[in-house]
Amino acid sequence: MSSLKIQTSNVFERNYNAPTKLVVNQGGTRSGKTYSLCQLLIVKAFEETGKRFSIVRKSLPSLKLSVMKDFFEILNAHGLYDETKHNKSDHTYTLNGNTFEFISLDQPQKKRGAKRHYLFCNEANELTWEDFFQLLVRTEEKIYIDYNPSETHHWLYDKILNREDCTFIKSTYKDNPFLPDELVKEIERLRETDEDYWKIYGLGERGFSKSIIFPRVEMMSKVPEEATLISTGLDFGYTNDPSSLVEVYELEDKLIFNELLYEL
After folding, report:
1. 36-51 residues labelled b (16+ CB within 10 A) or e (exposed)
2. Which CATH number applies to 10-202?
């Protein structure tokens, strides 16, 4: 380790010092989270030996263009890359007696795989819960996750972030000191041009899915008296689907839905 000197950001430091098994990185664009996690795994490979590291993404083309590119770029930049250690057919690399395997989950047979010591799920919001669960139960030591928070609802929020053995790390472009000024300005233009993109990719905060019909919903205890009834909608259930009956009201520029029935 004494011969390996790398420039790191605070994102690297926060991940390196995280005490829990699960370490979740939610961040905006160009926050350096993926690059920092590649640096971290390489550092761990010099601190330990005989370990298996799995780096996972949903599709092979995305895996090659993102995390694999960063990983091998770091090795090359520090004179660590050895072509004889790189099995390009199996997408594996041997470093200091450790095995790195790059797995895409568009190959079903790779989903379960062998047991591993370390797991890095890149852009984990692309994975299904089943994808992740099969990886989770086969990982013995540490699991690192990164993603852009472009979805409002996801298993990451419901099943991972609320665990007691999870460290949550949020980062933005401001945590990456190596970004050129022009790129910083481009990201900050989102503040004026696209509120949702600025929230997700600029601030690293949970955004709204573009597939959501009503992105901003408020709950109320009763329909205001001044609201105007527009119509009533009925949907008959079929087999295992419930029947539903709803009133639709209008109040100024808002729609109000009053559920009257939702049952089998």
Report:
1. bbbbbbbbbbeeeeeb
2. 3.40.50.300
